[in-house]
Amino acid sequence: MKLSIEFPSVSYREGPAAVATLARAIERIGYDHIDIFDHVVMGVPIEGRERGPYNPQMPILEALMALAYMAAVTTRVTLGTEVLVLPQRQPTLVAKQVSTLDTLSGGRVRLGVGVGWQESEYEALGESFRDRGARMDEAIRLLRAYWTDAEVSMASAHYPTVSMAMEPKPPQGGRLPIWIGGLSEAAFRRVGRLGDGWLASRVTDAAGARQAIEAIHRHAEAAGRDPGAIGLQSMVAPPPRDAAGKTFYGDHDQVVARVAALKAMGFGWVALNATAIFQSGARSVEAMTAELHRLHDRIRAEVG
User: Fold this and answer.
1) For the chain, what is the total number of helices (H) and then of strands (E)?
2) Phi and psi dihedrals of 218, rounded to 5?
């Protein structure tokens, strides 16, 4: 299996060097990939606003800036987002940022994208929440065009583009992988038609996983694509929302069993949430590193 780490923004509290130290440790231990999740701002709970799953005071490093910092101190591990909320960002700028990151990292970028859930964040960034799905599809096509074509022109309801050029192209070109998150039929359609992989965060049982994967494959076949070429990654456990969830990573038997179950469901990648490892009791970069080392060794020995 490919093993990814959802990078903990909380590490910055020990200073910038601690972020670099943890990124290097993840690479040295042998993990394949580092992801980081994306929120620019968080809505404070007020009347009439849906309450989100996170404390609005939770520290969250800006995803692409943090990855650029980590790219400078690593050489092998691949780097990505899980997930960048693409429709609340200007896609031409994202194309340039990701192309630059891929160029300076030596072709190590995988872009994970999703439509997000937080309407107030869209409002703060001056973007429309209601049509985010349609804009997501157009943005993905625009990214690939900028990474591939010498001259980009695209008829688009939201991002019309006429005779534009972007250089440098990423080393991976239009093959730079775009993986898509979500647990709705619209997300499965988007993965099947446009994505290189699916980023799952709340798979709870084999039957649900099978239904989701079958839906993705069905949409891929309808689009004339090879379903078997679409990668599958799942979080080992969703972000904890209660006391029980915050203890999950403290039980390594439980973690390894969950990874084995995900492998049996067909997932070729799994992501360990280092923020949840912090919440489970590893309250420093040194402690998180030790836990990640132990988990890596057990997963490799018992799951592969």
Assistant:
1) 10, 11
2) -65, -45
The rounded distance, in Å, linking the Cα atoms of 253 and 236 is: 13
Percent of the chain with pLDDT over 70: 100
Question: In the numeric block, which tokens belong to residue 221?
Answer: 């076949």
pTM of model > 0.70? yes
Instruction: Give the tens place of pLDDT for each residue, 120-130.
Output: 999 999 999 99
pLDDT of residue 245: 86
Secondary structure of 143-156 in HEC code, one letter for each residue: HHHHHHCCCEEECC
pLDDT of residue 235: 97
Q: Where are the beta strands (DSSP E) in 93-230?
A: 109-114, 152-154, 161-164, 178-181, 197-200
User: Contacts for 9-17 with beta carbons within 8 Å, 24 or more apart?
Assistant: 9/36, 9/58, 9/59, 9/60, 9/61, 9/66, 9/275, 10/59, 10/275, 10/278, 11/274, 11/285, 11/288, 12/59, 12/61, 13/59, 14/284, 14/285, 16/69
Specify the range with the lowest mean pLDDT, choosing from 100-109, 114-123, 170-179, 200-209.
200-209
Tokens representing 246 are 């915050």
Q: How far apart are CA 189 and CA 195, in angstroms?
A: 9
